[in-house]
UniProtKB/TrEMBL annotation:
Residues 14-210 form the SGNH hydrolase-type esterase domain. SUPFAM superfamilies: SGNH hydrolase. The lineage of its organism: Bacteria, Bacillati, Actinomycetota, Actinomycetes, Kitasatosporales. It comes from Streptomyces bugieae. Transmembrane segments: none annotated. It comes from the Bacteria. InterPro entries: Ester_Hydrolysis_Enzymes (IPR051532), SGNH_hydro (IPR013830), SGNH_hydro_sf (IPR036514). This is GDSL-type esterase/lipase family protein.
Amino acid sequence: MTITLRPGTTVMFTGDSITDSQRLASEDGLGFGYPLRVAGEWGLRHPDRPVTWLNSAIAGHKVRDLEPRWQADVLDARPDVVSILVGVNDMGWHTLDPDGHVIPAEDFAAGYDRLLAPLAAAGTELILIEPFLLPISGSVKAGDAHVDVAVRKEWRADLDPKIQVVRELAREYGAHLLAADGMFAELAAVSGPEYWAADGVHPTPAGHAALAAAWLRLVA
């Protein structure tokens, strides 16, 4: 089953930097990543069904950062559809921030559940996008930290249980799941991981296009 976007539907994208994509620097507030591509492609295909597209993502945010602003930035907009991509910063916080620590999957799940519960109670359609990590080679800089293969292996071990949390919450809430981690693993096997996300986390233009195409397959 797909989500039907009727004329006048309001869609809210939210999450971290992958969704933010410099939204405050863009004229329409959608940023320059997959939300913009989704809105553009939908508008091209369905000029008879205008949709209001919103983006409230903030770079660097974790589930715990979404919670205090959830009412003002998401619920008060009364969206018909909410699309969430969060988890990468929950994965790497302990290696990137001197004040950070490992966030257990149980805490991640509890916080994510608190985000979803009021939306489900309001009858909001939900799209949950798996956080993802591509197996690039070499070392890249992330803030003041250098992330090498060993760190990414640690991240992967931390991320996998959180991906499972997203899958379980999607089943529990009857949400549509965008299996982005698996999708990028398949794409990377053909074209190499750097083609889709040069640092393993933030999509390239092609990576954002892949996310947008997968997102659009969930709606009609």
